């Protein structure tokens, strides 16, 4: 059954924006090392860092019809998350769809498939994380669903989850954990700032983190 | 039998240049979604967009001898297209060969294998699309052929076909279809320009393309 | 048995620096086409070219404890070379470890696994060649070894070997061959400079390298 | 937070067994083409066809501690489903664990990682679908969870879902849909039996399925 | 434009059958090491060795409609060769289609995509070489073509070419070269039979093939 | 420089044979989880389990000349270990070479590349572990070396090391550690036999290995 869910809960954009500034590596640690998509999801242009509320799309292989359907469900601060029902490298998305999403305030696209018009997307400043880049076109013949739970690049994404994406990858933060994830991320960043200063001054992690005893206890031996 | 075909028919560079400006995604659509190489063919540096007449080279694995032979067959406006007879990631091509090709007016290289000297190639502004980047050297011991039909990255390339390559991939346009492909591409671009303006103004693809009835007929359901 | 070898022989940095300026493709040829890591080892940012003395680290999958141990063994002019005992794409290394290595004069990281904080690493100017980029965190629970022989991306690396890395890949030069490798590399560069000038002037490699007779002897045929 | 959920709802084994006899391809079609794991999940020996109730395990990379924990939660008719939190090809599982599972009536293992002792597993008649085969050992140092929702090979698996696995792959049937899936699968099998007889007698699918008009309407042309 | 070509030239089955008995490795050598499909094309069951006349099918990704169209074009001694227009691992083909093909005397299937019902196909004795095995279903919505030239797994296949397939892979013999390929294959087999006897008796290839001088001339050194 | 080392030290075949009967998983554990080749090295036929003394061969891509050279260096109880200097899937080895090796008492082949004639190799009972299967032929034009240290599938192999190979993969045991590895392997097997009996009787690994306290200490929680 193909459905489009119109009303989904979203997270306040102040929290979403703060998560973006923490970055995926920090949020991933704060979340107990869960929620990261596979490492083959790469940004199509260098430098983007965004966060947004997920509008999810399940599409048929090489068929982008449901992306057109999904556009209407997007609003300011959203990120479109697209996964095909079987692996496909076709170019589901290009600058026309990006133009449409941009007009609605959408912040980016996460797609476990291919995209095209990558130079134009960079010039528009529209961020995309994809598995492939390909000029290959798609058809419009098979239904899928919008705003249902999907698995994208190995991660479960529920509509309304917060997506954080940067040059290190793509994180999914379940909506109900977004506030807590932010709090833990900021604590972690504060701590890292102090560690960074000590490391820059030449102190060793072995000493700062107090690892020497544990290493010796495990049996590590030093040879000259 | 190893052969070098000296005389091949080419396409007028005015048509070739116009195809370059259309880009691979557009030309691919205009061609009925045929002729695209596999998506693992990637530009070694960012921003190149070229078109040219194909000089084809069939090479042995890890043996670049025939590329040296092929250089002599190239002229202004050509693109060298190289495929090994079995998969190989060695670096068949570097800045010396590029220097030689550039001196003959060649516009770029398409190779389903590896290249090296990629910083130098970018500094020279010599465009390359390859499957791999590798410093691995090759030998000169086994013959191949120049200007015979080859399969490169899943696409059939006949000598004299028009190659269009940009950040979205590499397209092969059969020589006899080049004029028609250009005409259809330009029609498509004109149409897209109008659509783009409407999408930027906030209209939905669902309405512009008139998709709502077809979606409903297929059974798409909206839930609140 | 997990060990850390403290004293390793290194190569004079004058030789190391000169090898860096030759580049991997040239040094690879000078070494008889040996010592190159697999082509999946790619720079995480564009433009880096370095050489240094290898401090080697054997790590458990998804466990970066031994990298912290290895930092203490590094000094000015070193490059850290890390290989997991089974394939892993986790992000073993980020900007905190880079800060620590930089404070010790380390020139870069070669890792057959993942790294994270790639934007920060680029901003710091800290060069990394890796197999993956991933925000995925690692644990600190299993010992490994520092400064033992390791296999990294298909190449044997002994502690103290010279690593040369640029946009074409990563080369390992056995320590005792570093001087000879430099000498042969420089000879090769001199020769290439002359060839480059002739090629740029339009001469053909077929003639410069005297290939025509050998091609004919092998049976190459020219057709019109 | 690492948890082990002890009480999970399961499906009656009569339904589970009937689903096994339908096979993955049929159940996949009956489920609207959803729920299939990625095609890299392959049986380690030829001929197995099983179904069972899922006990799920989330494990750290190269750490099989939680599989030992999960054994205790298994009972007659279960299938263990294991996914690492980042990709790993290590051999998490061998004949000792299989001996233990067999003693509890467990019907098989689905693991998005590696297994070892594959000859012994075949001799025991213990079915396994895995992504890799590897003798590589694992550690016991990091917690995970048992009977939480996991993503395994691209499919969401909730504890208690029905797993159907055969030579074509691995299907996940959400527990609440098991009865309906069976009903639809059996209807499909009945229909296919009739079609098979007609095809074997030489009738064409073009005629049986009445495709000729639709093909003509789409513009298919026959040439002599 | 989607077309079905009804009349294609085929090769006499006596020649086809004789090529089957030569095997792919021998025919590949006889053909000057051309015409081999990529090594990812593997038999789905062990032991099949066939040859036949190619009926080619170009299909859309995850859409098997044209295979139904192609069945009607097949006759005794044919092999169906299927390639999607972009990479796809879906299961395009199962035992119902095999039943239909078998009723027409078709000898096997070569498909650069997925198949399902692999146990049933083995029980039927219907040989298949594919890139993937997957229960994933396909749709019937987009046209393709039958009996046009296609690229399948890196090899150009024209309708009516002879396909030879065994446990070593899949070979394409252009129709007009089939007789010559057979003659050269048989000569090669005769020669190998003699060599085999000498090798079995303990003679060395170094002596039988007279390689020692060439090795020494190249500079090979023996050390004690 | 290409060399053939004629005299290498080997391990007594009694020890070698005993290692074969232990299997790769056990020997790998006994060796501290080192020495395993990558998991893409797979047996070409089901059921083989062998051990032997390594004769190593470094070959050029798609060039099997040095395998012919290596045959002469082999004797009763050896295993040939072959690695190309850059990745290659060509079929370096078939039944003629196997006939020659068999005549000399060689027990099998380990090759990080392709082989062909796989049905014939199975019929001969000649065991092979390879990365690929391919009918693709190779040339005889470039020298390599025999009995030098090589890296094969991620593992360092010195001539005379003991190779143990079975359905779980391929292990390299450094020659000087062969006796110790055997001793530790047998101890491990004895211990496993006892554990197996207890597991088969229904005892849990959690209790046999005494894991419950450690799990609780790490914070594992049980929920109902």
The structure class of chain A reads alpha/beta
Total strands of chain A: the figure is 12
Could you spell the SSE succession of chain A in H and E letters? EHHEEHEHEHEEEEEEHHHE
- Let me know the largest β-sheet of chain A: 8 strands, mixed
Distance between the termini of chain A: 68 Å
Assembly level:
homohexamer
Chain pair with largest interface:
A-B, 36 and 36 residues
How much helical structure, as a percent, in the residues of chain A? 25-40%
Global morphology of chain A: elongated
Mean pLDDT of chain A: 97
Q: Please mark out the parts of chain A with pLDDT under 50 across 5 or more consecutive residues, or reply none.
A: none
Q: What percentage of the residues of chain A does DSSP assign to strands (E)?
A: 25-35%
What is the overall number of helices of chain A?
A: 8
Radius of gyration of chain A: 20 Å
Keywords for this entry:
homohexamer, alpha/beta, eight-stranded mixed sheet, two-stranded antiparallel sheet, 8 helices, 12 strands, 33% helix, elongated
Question: Could you characterize the architecture of this molecule?
Answer:
Six copies of one chain form a homohexamer. By secondary structure, chain A is of the alpha/beta class. Chain A is 33% helix and 25% strand. Chain A has eight helices and twelve strands. In chain A, the strands form two sheets. In chain A, strands 2, 3, 4, 5, 6, 7, 10 and 11 form an eight-stranded mixed sheet that branches. In chain A, strands 8-9 form a two-stranded antiparallel ribbon. In chain A, β5, α5 (118-124) and β6 (128-133) form a beta-alpha-beta unit. In chain A, α2 (24-30) packs across α6. Chain A is elongated and about 65 Å long. The model of chain A has no long low-confidence stretch (mean pLDDT 97). Chains in contact: A-B, A-C, A-D, A-E, B-C, B-E, B-F, C-D, C-F, D-E, D-F, E-F. Chain A binds chain B through residues 1-7, 65, 68-69, 71-72, 89, 91, 94-97, 99-100, 102-104, 114, 116-119, 132-137, 140, 143, and chain B through 23-25, 28-29, 33, 36, 39, 42, 47, 49, 166-169, 171, 192, 195-196, 199-202, 204-206, 209, 211, 215, 218-224.
